[in-house]
Amino acid sequence: MSTTATEHKLPTFAPMPLEDIAKVREELQRGFASGKTRSVAWRRAQILALVYLIKDNIDRFNAALALDLGRSPLETHIAEVGPTLDELRVLYDGVAKWAKTESAPFSTAWFPMKPQIRKEPKGVVLVITPFNYVITLSMCPIAGALAAGCTVAFKPSEQTPHASALFAELMPKYVDTDVVRVVNGAIPETTKLLEYQWDHIMYTGSGRVARIVLTAAAKTLSPVTTELGGKSPAIFGPRCNLKTSVRRVLWAKFANSGQTCIAPDYAIVPKSLELDFIDEIRRVLPEFYPDGAERSSSFSRIVSFRGTARLHALLQNTKGETVCGGRVDVEARFVEPTVVRGVGGDDSLMSEYAVILELFGPILPIVTVDDVDEAIAFVKARDHPLALYVFSEDKEFQQKIIESTQSGGVLVNDTMVHFAAYGVPFGGIGPSGSGQYKGKYSFDMFTHLRTVLVSASWLDIILSGRYPPFSAAKARKMDMLTLPSFPSRPKVPPVPSEVPQSSTSRWGAGVVVALVVSMTALLTRSSHRRS
Amino acid sequence: MAVPDYVPTPVDDIPTIRAELGAAFRAGTTKPIANRREQLLALAYLLKDNIDRFKEALASDLGRPALETDVLEVGGTLHEIKDAYDSVARWARPQRAPFALNYAAMRPTIRKEPKGVVLIIVPFNYPLLLTLEPLAGAIAAGCAAVVKPSELTPAFSALLADLVPQYLDPALYRVVNGAVPETTKLLEQPWDHILFTGSARVARIVLAAAARTLSPVTTELGGKSPVIVDASCDLRTTARRLVWGKTANAGQTCVAPDYVLVPRAFQDKLVQACIDVLKEFYPDGAAESDSYSRIVSPGHHARLSALLEKSGGTTAYGGGKRAEDKFIEPTIVTGVGLDDSLMSEELFGPVLPIIAVEDINEAIQIVNARDHPLALYVFTQDSRVKKQVLDGTQSGGAVVNDCLLQVTADGLPFGGIGPSGSGSHTGKYSFDMFTHTRSTLDNPSWLDLVMGGRFPPFTDKSTRMMRALLVPSLPARKSKSAANRWGSYWVMLSLACAAAAYGAKLIAERKQ
Question: Which class is B226-410 in CATH?
Answer without folding.
Answer: alpha beta
